[in-house]
Structure to design on (406 residues):
């Protein structure tokens, strides 16, 4: 059933592990995303292996041959081999007896064909052995060629096994680039949409970031709005505005998610979801009008300034502020990259004036306030600080003169 394929795109360490398992009397093949991406001639990152050896046998083989092994997921037949600073998940062939979300009750198998039946999509159920032979049990290669995302078996059954497959469906449609949807699948997804709330926030956010990492992912959001509304009560697809303003491509996947969520009732969501800190901090940035934004940018963490400027542009566009949003955004982005956006004055700059601790504290606070409220250069800040220091000392000088006269 195999077709010979050039395996030069795949790390040779993988073939070492495959060969190691087979020399010990078992069968092993690469499976899933690595094979899919190999066939698409895309960069391969994570590699999963499937084998008819049981987890205990894999652990024994690895340890006997000096390969580090971690029994993570052993309950479900998976262990992780670590070789040459890379990790490879090795899973025993199995069939799912009962499924409940990410967890399932499994029975080990000796059949790759049986193992393929439990996988989500046809494009993820293709296997490749160490000689580059391809084993395709569900016409996955044909679906890759036609860029068709197809569930294995009944879509409703596959989705109810793990509701994350709703997100995975949209991700693979987006990754294919043709945005061709199966209407039957969309109807099933619509009927089951409320169940996405059963997923952990970590899994949801991780999958959304993967979706938004696709170059033209803004095109997938309209089809996902029902799901996103279920989770986040989104008001609209703000990424469309990012496209209109020409800033969508420059946003990272995390920034795209933050931009989407910033237009929902995020204060309520923080009580329900455990968002990563970087996303939370970006979303909690307060919105201000144009007169204050330059002041605000000076007080925002360096990592978030450019995102904030872009968010201001989207917000202004939506509120029809009357400003030439693109023109102002260009000014803001230039300001974010200029020396004026950072408070550069340090105690070393005032060292030769020998300020006391109290004087230094007062001068630094006053100068920072002056810097925030005015569009000034670092050199002008220093001049202001020196003048401030001198004004602090004038009453003391006058007092000393009075004592001398007495």
């Amino acid at each position: 059933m195999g077709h010979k394929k050039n395996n030069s795109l795949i790390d040779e360490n993988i073939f070492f592990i495959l060969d190691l398992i087979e020399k010990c009397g078992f069968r092993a093949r690469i499976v899933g995303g690595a094979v899919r991406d190999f066939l698409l001639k895309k960069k391969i990152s994570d590699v999963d292996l499937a084998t008819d050896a049981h987890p205990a046998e894999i652990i024994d083989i690895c340890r006997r041959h000096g390969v580090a092994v971690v029994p993570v997921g052993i309950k479900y037949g998976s262990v992780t081999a670590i070789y040459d600073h890379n990790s490879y998940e090795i899973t025993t062939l199995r069939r799912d007896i009962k499924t409940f979300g990410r967890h399932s009750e499994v029975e080990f198998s000796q059949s790759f064909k049986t193992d393929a039946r439990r996988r989500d999509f046809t494009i993820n159920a293709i296997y490749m052995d160490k000689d580059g032979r391809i084993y395709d049990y569900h016409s996955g290669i044909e679906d890759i060629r036609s860029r068709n995302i197809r569930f294995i078996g009944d879509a409703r059954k596959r989705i109810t096994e793990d509701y994350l497959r709703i997100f995975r469906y949209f991700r693979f449609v987006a990754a294919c680039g043709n945005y061709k949807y199966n209407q039957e699948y969309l109807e099933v997804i619509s009927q089951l949409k409320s169940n996405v709330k059963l997923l952990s926030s970590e899994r949801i956010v991780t999958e959304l970031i993967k979706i938004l990492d696709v170059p033209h992912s803004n095109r997938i959001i309209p089809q996902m709005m029902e799901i996103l509304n279920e989770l986040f009560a989104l008001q609209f697809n703000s990424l469309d505005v990012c496209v209109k303003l020409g800033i969508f491509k420059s946003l990272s996947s995390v920034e795209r998610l933050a931009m989407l969520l910033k237009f929902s009732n995020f204060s309520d969501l923080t009580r329900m979801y455990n968002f990563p800190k970087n996303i939370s901090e970006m979303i909690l940035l307060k919105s201000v009008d144009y007169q204050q934004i330059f002041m605000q940018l000076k007080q925002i963490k360096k990592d978030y300034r450019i995102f904030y400027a872009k968010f201001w542009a989207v917000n202004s566009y939506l509120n029809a502020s009357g400003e030439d949003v693109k023109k102002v955004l260009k000014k803001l982005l230039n300001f974010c990259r200029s020396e004026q956006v950072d408070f550069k004055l340090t105690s070393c700059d005032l060292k030769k004036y020998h300020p006391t601790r109290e004087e230094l504290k007062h001068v630094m606070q006053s100068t920072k306030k002056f810097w925030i409220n005015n569009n000034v250069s670092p050199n002008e800040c220093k001049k202001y600080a020196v003048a401030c220091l001198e004004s602090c000392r004038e009453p003391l000088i006058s007092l000393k003169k009075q004592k001398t006269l007495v």
Remarks:
- Residues 344-405 form one domain.
